[in-house]
Amino acid sequence: MAELRADARSNRDQILAAAQLVFREQGVNVSMKDIADAAGVGVGTLYRRFPDRGALISAAAHSYLSALSDLAATAERESPDAWQALARLLRECAELRLGATASAIEPTLHADIKADPTLTEIRTTITDRIARLTTQAHTHGT
After folding, report:
1. Which has the closest alpha carbon to 68: 108, 29, 125, 120?
2. Do residues 71 and 126 lie in contact, with contact meaning Cβ atoms separated by under 8 Å?
3. Is residue 41 part of a domain?
4. pTM value surpassing 0.85
5. Counting C-beta atoms within 10 Å of the first and last residue's C-beta, which end of the chain has fewer, N or C?
6. Exposed, middle or buried by CB within 10 Å (0-12, 13-18, 19+), for 97?
7. CATH at 38
8. On the CB side of 35, how many CA atoms lie within 13 Å of its CA?
9. How many domains does the chain have?
């Protein structure tokens, strides 16, 4: 993706944050106008950034998965052991209601995740990290 101006990047970030919130609360079939309203932008701005619902859902999923990957990496890096890293990650996921976001977005994207290498890669990174932490915690008896 080409480098965006600061205002365009801000609009894109607002739209993605609003989309994740609205998808979590109302599902992915909510109107694009409702998402634009929640983001505080016009519908035209939304469509300039995301030409259709599929593009918006895919971008929201990528943003969601990137945030989850960052949470997992930070928990692993900053926690003294694997069990505490897992507990921190789960606590933060619950506080951010990431499970609700996943349940709204993931069913729509299952085929796309398999087809989009960036979504597949980031999802694999997350599952590998969690599996590694789980194995380490189990090995240490925690």
Report:
1. 125
2. no
3. yes
4. no
5. N
6. middle
7. 1.10.357.10
8. 33
9. 1
